[in-house]
Amino acid sequence: MDAPMIRSILVPVDFSEITERVMAHALMLAGQNRARLTLLHVVNVPPLVEAGPWGQPASSLNVEYELRKQLRAAAEEKLRALQEECGRLEVKAETSVCEGTPYDEIIRTAEEIKADLIVMGSQGHSALSRFLVGSNAERVVRRARQTVLCVKPAGQGEG
Hints:
Blueprint: E1 8-12, H1 19-33, E2 36-43, E3 49-51, E4 57-59, H2 61-88, E5 93-99, H3 102-112, E6 117-121, H4 127-143, E7 147-151
Helix pairs in contact: 3-4
């Protein structure tokens, strides 16, 4: 049986508690396969709407723009720190921040970079994050052409 070639690994991260475990798995696989990592964060800001005169919705474009700008800047800074850690371990890594629906952007990016594998968390740390991240992981597993490794939080499934 031929072993699969893993040269490019997409690592979507949400910076929740599980990110450290996701990175540990991705770094191990990248090291073993001499693969390149692409660290991805998806900024997902739903449209903010406020009531204008006479109850008509008026979008808060300036508020949305500033929020997106701040979230992108914070994500870029955190991704740079993860990229530096990869460099210390002699693993090549690039970073990407995009906006949109997380599972759509993960699948789109995986296709764009020709990823052989996606390594992502199975869930986040808060109830809302667990729901959103878990739901994103499920959608990626079902829809992505690539193999997806879902990393569980510490203590879950161990025993």
